[in-house]
Amino acid sequence: MSTTSIVSSKNVCVIGAGPSGLVAARELRKEKHNVVVIEQNHDVGGQWLYQPNVKVEDPLGKNPFLKVHSSAYASLRLTSPREIMGYSDFPFVIKKGRDMRRFPGHAELLLYLKDFCDEFGIRELIRFNTRVDYVGILLHEFDGSCKDLKWIVRSQEKMSGIVVEEVYDAVVVATGHYSQPWLPRIKGMDVWKRKQMHSHIYRIPEPFRDEVVVVVGNSHSGQDISMELVNVAKDIHLSTKSVAHILPGLSKVISKYDTLHLHPQIESLQEDGRVIFEDGSWITADTIIYCTGYSYSFPFLDTKGIVSIDENRVGPLFEHTFPPSLAPSLSFIGIPRKIIALPFFESQAIWVAQLLSGKKKLPSQDEMMLSIKEFYHSREVAGIPKRYTHELADFEYCDKYADYVGFQHLEEWRKDLCISAVINSLENLETYRDSYDDNEMLQEAYQSPHFKQAI
Ligand SMILES: Cc1cc2nc3c(=O)[nH]c(=O)nc-3n(C[C@H](O)[C@H](O)[C@H](O)COP(=O)(O)OP(=O)(O)OC[C@H]3O[C@@H](n4cnc5c(N)ncnc54)[C@H](O)[C@@H]3O)c2cc1C
């Protein structure tokens, strides 16, 4: 990667003021770009801005432009300890009078993000209550290369309805990917007349009091929601892809509660309310909650087919960030899953900012395309379905990525605390957020420069 001394500032539009967009704004401004962040909600935070009113949303989230962004439920707590979460220079410290738990509730992360905005003066860059409806290439400037590419960004202010069309040198898409429900195809889904909803709009257990509920999917949300429904619903039937591969933590929970039952996948739904499972067993349910995950979705983005979503693979994207033929003018922050999110987003933001200013250079388009193809091939060989292209779960990858911009590698204590929490959760699903055995690692974290800088 060569460097050059020609440094220029660009007019950059960042879409979204969640953890990705906020750090993008900071890094872009640091690099002397003119930044506008457009955010559809009334405040910062993205997923962490809890939205209690879900009545406005289709229960299965069938609209391409959703009305509710956050999928956070009232009881949601972080799955990873707070110490590993913070941006590199802004640790997620415990504050008196707030949620002081190591695995705090969603509101605490929102407060952290608000503190981040205050510390770095980011709010002044954000246009709230404004939704981006269209992003497209300014065609008369487009000669098929990424040189001097410009973007039309059309947005609408929610209250006034005023539509604004602007031209930017670069667009950073930071709109998240935990909002658009992904639904399985199940025979009879259309004829089953009772309540069907996606966990995207699940908020509290009370509406399910005394109901028979089928929870589909046993990933984080499916587990959390099932565990909270055991105290309220009449019966919970958890349907999983593979009954044989249930982890010990979940097994313990299932054997503890008489009202929680495990089932294989659903074979079909019947008009009379029956839910038939693949092993032939059946129950009559009041509600089905699909905790089946989310799809990438950029309903506003028109790249003339250059970037597309194929079985939840957004591509082609060099290092999950840049479409080679539009780079670095168009970039995506926050696409990877199963990473330590905030520091990774920060490294992406630094790279985008420095590429736009000309401080750094990308490889040629051909080289980037080759790298993407090699990556796809390596995943295929490893038997990883296309759908999981952006699920990384790989610290080495994060370090390699950091090397592009000279960003620090993940500290060993971050990796260790992360792994320790994952292992604990696999064994002790109900208690891992309140009972842990990682004090030595924790002390190491507190003695590290990351935490010392906060004193
Ligand atoms: C239930 C749940 C639990 C989670 N738990 C954890 C956890 O414990 N730890 C963890 O690290 N991560 C967790 N996550 C993942 C979480 O999404 C990320 O931590 C993080 O919020 C991603 O940040 P982001 O900025 O990329 O996206 P988001 O937080 O989703 O922010 C995107 C922003 O873009 C805005 N936006 C979208 N479209 C438009 C548009 N057209 N115009 C204008 N603005 C737009 C949205 O309003 C939003 O503010 C969880 C997610 C969910 C759903």
Which stretches are poorly predicted, pLDDT < 50 over at least 5 residues?
A: none
The CATH homologous superfamily of one domain is called FAD/NAD(P)-binding domain
Shape: globular
Tell me the helix content.
25-40%
Number of strands: 21
Range of strand content: 15-25%
Cofactor: FAD
Pfam families: FMO-like
Protein name: Flavin-containing monooxygenase
Function: Catalyzes the conversion of methylthioalkyl glucosinolates of any chain length into methylsulfinylalkyl glucosinolates.
What does this structure look like?
With 455 residues, this protein is α/β, with parallel strands linked by helices. Among the domains are: 209 residues, FAD/NAD(P)-binding domain (3-Layer(bba) Sandwich); 107 residues, 3-Layer(bba) Sandwich (FAD/NAD(P)-binding domain), CATH 3.50.50. It is 26% helix and 19% strand. The strands form 6 sheets. Strands 3-2-1-7-21 form a 5-stranded parallel beta sheet, covered by helices on one side. The chain has a 5-stranded parallel beta sheet with strand order 9-16-10-11-12. α4 links the parallel β11 and β12. The model has no long low-confidence stretch (mean pLDDT 95). Bound molecules: flavin-adenine dinucleotide. Flavin-adenine dinucleotide binds next to α1 and β4. This is Flavin-containing monooxygenase. Belongs to the FMO family. Catalyzes the conversion of methylthioalkyl glucosinolates of any chain length into methylsulfinylalkyl glucosinolates. Its cofactor is FAD.
